[in-house]
Design goal:
homodimer, 399 residues, 9-stranded mixed β-sheet, 22% strand, globular, Hydantoinase/carbamoylase family amidase (chains A, B), metal ion binding (chains A, B)
C-alpha cells in the first residue's frame, strides 16, 4: 500500500479554506456553523470520489463506508472557536488518503468518519458521545452553547442531510490520528507517538461561601474571606497531591468567580472549577477524596460554607493491544528510534468509540505544544511520517 | 445646651422615606437620583427652619450656614446602591439637632453640611474631594458611573439649585458623626468611639501574564499558570506582612479576573486588585515595597510577566487634638467607661475637609458590624448617646 503525500497535503490545505481565519493557518469552524457544514459536504465529495458510501448520522457525524466489515479511521473536522488547521482535520484527511491507497492496493477495506462537535460547542466530544449511547439524542438536544442556542436548533441547519445511526458492528476497530497538543514529541525531536491510553477526567465546580464585608473596617482576624479560602485550599491541595500523583497527572483551577468582585469589599463568595486528569481510575478517586477532604477542612477552619457541584467525568481508556501493536511496528519501520509510547492527556472521540470496538491512537508532534490556537502547526514532514505509520498499521492489520 | 432626642429621631425616620427600599429600614438613594435630590430639598427646608442660610455648591453639596465664623458639623445624605438608613444621614440629622439646641441655648454658632456623592457613584467621596481642591470640577465632570453616565450630566438634574463654592475659611473646624461600619464597639458593648485618625489607603491592579494552554496535555512542571502565580503571591504576602502590620492594618484581594477563565484551559492571565489600609503612611509604603518585591519574585520564579497598574491612594489623616479632646471629654461625661479611642478603617469626607481646617470624628456602634446593606442598624439609645456626645463637644468647644 503506497500513500501519496501530495494528495494528502493538498486535501489538508483545501480543507483549511473552510472557515479560514485569515491569521496564519488558523481556522474558525465550530460545529454546525456554515463553514463546518460546507467542510463536511466537501469531505463527503472526497469520500464519494474514493468509492465510499457516504452517510450522516442524526448528530451530523459524517461516515464514508466501505462495503462489508472494515476498519474505521478518522477523527473530527469541527474546530474550536479559535482553532488550528490540523487538530482533528488531520485524522480525517489521513484516513481518506489511506482509503484511497488501500483501494489502489486492492485492500483491505477501510471506512472513514468525521465526528460532529468533538470540540464541545454543546458538550464534550458530543457527536461520538451520543453515538456511544452515553447520552441520548433527546438529552443532547437540550444542551445549549454559550449564546444559549440549543443543539436541536443547531442540528436543524443540516437537517436535510441527516440519516439514521450507523451500526457500530460494521467496524472491526477504530484508529484515530491526531496532533499531540502537548510538548513531548516536539521537545524530543520525535516524529510519532503511539498512545497507550487516554486519561480519565473529573471536573466539578466548588463554591466557598464567606462573609461579604467592608474592606476597610473589617479586621483581618474577623474576616471570612472566600478568596483566602480558595487560596488556602489550592496550597494544601498541591502539598497533599505530591504523595499521590505521577508526572502525567494534571490538575487545574481554570475558572474563578468572586462575589461581589470589588476592590473595597471582602469577597463573600468564591466559585471555581476543579479539574483533574490521570490514566488510572483509582488515582482519580484518591484525588477526589483529597479534594473533598481538603475543601471541607479549609471551610471548617475558616468558617466558610462549602458546596460541591455535580462531578462530571470520563473514565480512562486503555488502547487495544492488537491495534496498538500494529501502530508500534509501523512507527518503528517509518521512524526507527524516533517515536514513543505515551498517554493522551486530552480527550478524544476514541474514548467514546471504545464502548463499541477496539480503539487505538497515533500522535504527531505539535510545534511548541500549541493547539486550540491559530498558531497550531506541525512540520509537513512529520505529517507525512504520521500518514505512513497509519497506512503501515492498516496494512499490517489487514482490515 | 439640651438636645431633643425625639426631634432628632423623627428627622432620621422621615429622611429614610426618601428612597426607602421597602426592606427593613433599607435605603436606595445614590447621589443625584431623584430620591437624593428630594432628600436634599427636604433637608434644606429643615435647615431653613433652624435659621440657617442654605446653599448648594457646584457639586450639589448642601450647606446650612450660621452667620459669621462657626463650627461645621455634618456628613452626607447619599447612600450606596443598597444602603442603610444611618450611614452619613445620621451625621447630618445629628448636626441639625445640635444647631437647633445651640440656637435655643443662645450659642455657639454651628453650620451643617451634607456632602454630595460620598458613596462614590462617580469617584470616592467625590463632593468633598472637589471642595478640597484635590480634583477640579472639570476633571470630576468627566467621571462616569457604572452605566456610563457622566457626572456633568448627573449634576444637570439639580442645576437649577446649584450656586458657587462655599469659602472654607468661614469654618473653625469640622466634626463628622458616623456609624462605625465595623464590629468593635458593638462587640465590646460600648456606646461611642472617638476617632484618632482615618487610615490611608493604597489600591492598585496587578496583572500576571502566563501561558494559556491545554489543561490536559500540558504537564504541571511546564505550566506557567497565572492563577497559581496569584496564589503563590498571596501566600508569600501574608507571611511577609506579619513582621510589618498591626492589628488595625488590613489588606484585600477583592477582585480576580482570569483569562480565558475556562475549566479546561491553564489560565494565561490573572488580573487582580490589591488594596491595603493603615493609619501610618510609612507602614503603607513598607507594605507597597513588600507587594512589589513579592510580585516580582513570584513572577520571576514562575516565568510570568508582571504589570502594576497605577496606584491610587489617600493619605492617613490625624484628627485634631482640640476637637478630639472635646469629643473625649463629652464621651466620658455621657457614657463613662463605655467609649474608646479608635482609628477609622473606612474613608470619610473628613479626610478631604482636613485640607481646609481641623477635623474630628465620632462613631456610634454598627449592630453586627454591618453597613452598606439594607440590614444596617444601630440601637436608638446609642444614636441618642452619640447625639449627646456631639452636642457636649460643641458646647465645650464654644464654637
Amino acid at each position: 500500500m503506497t500513500v501519496k503525500p501530495d494528495r494528502f497535503l493538498a486535501d489538508l490545505h483545501e480543507l483549511r479554506q473552510f472557515g479560514a481565519s485569515g491569521i496564519g493557518k488558523g481556522v474558525v469552524r465550530p460545529a454546525y456553523c456554515d463553514a463546518d457544514i460546507a467542510a463536511r459536504e466537501w469531505l463527503r465529495g472526497r469520500m464519494d470520489a474514493a468509492g465510499l458510501a457516504t452517510h450522516y448520522d442524526p448528530m451530523g457525524s459524517l461516515f464514508g463506508l466501505a462495503e462489508g466489515r472494515s476498519l474505521l479511521l478518522g477523527s473530527h473536522s469541527d474546530s474550536q472557536p479559535e482553532g488550528g488547521w490540523l487538530d482533528g482535520a488531520l485524522g480525517v484527511c489521513a484516513a481518506l488518503e489511506v482509503v484511497r491507497a488501500a483501494k489502489e492496493a486492492g485492500g483491505p477495506p477501510v471506512s472513514v468518519v468525521s465526528f460532529q462537535d468533538e470540540e464541545g460547542r454543546f458538550g464534550v466530544t458530543t457527536g461520538s458521545t451520543v453515538w456511544s449511547g452515553a447520552l441520548s439524542l433527546e438529552q443532547a438536544d437540550e444542551l445549549e452553547d454559550r449564546d444559549g442556542m440549543r443543539l436541536s436548533e443547531a442540528r436543524g441547519a443540516m437537517a436535510h442531510l441527516l440519516g439514521d445511526w450507523v451500526d457500530p458492528k460494521r467496524f472491526t476497530g477504530f484508529i484515530e490520528m491526531h496532533i499531540e497538543q502537548g510538548p513531548w514529541l516536539d521537545q524530543a525531536g520525535e516524529a510519532a507517538g503511539v498512545v497507550s491510553g487516554i486519561v480519565g477526567i473529573r471536573d466539578m465546580r466548588i463554591t466557598l461561601e464567606g462573609q461579604q464585608n467592608h474592606a476597610g473596617t473589617t479586621p483581618m482576624h474577623l474576616r471570612r474571606d472566600a478568596f483566602q479560602g480558595l487560596a488556602a485550599f489550592n496550597a494544601l491541595l498541591g502539598e497533599r497531591f505530591q504523595n499521590v500523583v505521577t508526572p502525567q497527572t494534571v490538575w487545574t483551577i481554570g475558572h474563578v468567580s468572586l462575589h461581589p468582585d470589588a476592590h473595597s469589599i471582602v469577597p463573600g463568595r468564591a466559585t471555581f472549577s476543579m479539574q483533574w486528569r490521570d490514566g488510572d481510575a483509582e488515582r482519580l478517586k484518591r484525588m477526589e477524596d483529597i479534594i473533598r477532604t481538603t475543601a471541607r477542612e479549609v471551610a471548617e477552619a475558616r468558617g466558610l460554607g462549602l458546596e460541591f457541584g455535580p462531578m462530571l467525568g470520563l473514565e480512562p481508556v486503555e488502547m487495544d493491544s492488537r491495534l496498538r501493536g500494529a501502530l508500534e511496528a509501523a512507527a518503528e519501520a517509518e521512524a526507527p528510534g524516533k517515536w514513543r509510547v505515551m498517554p493522551s492527556g486530552a480527550l478524544h472521540d476514541a474514548t467514546n468509540v471504545a464502548v463499541h470496538m477496539p480503539v487505538a491512537m497515533l500522535f504527531v508532534p505539535s510545534i511548541g505544544g500549541i493547539s486550540h490556537a491559530f498558531e497550531e502547526d506541525t512540520d509537513e514532514r512529520d505529517l507525512v511520517t504520521g500518514l505512513k505509520v497509519l497506512a503501515g498499521a492498516v496494512a499490517r492489520l489487514g482490515g
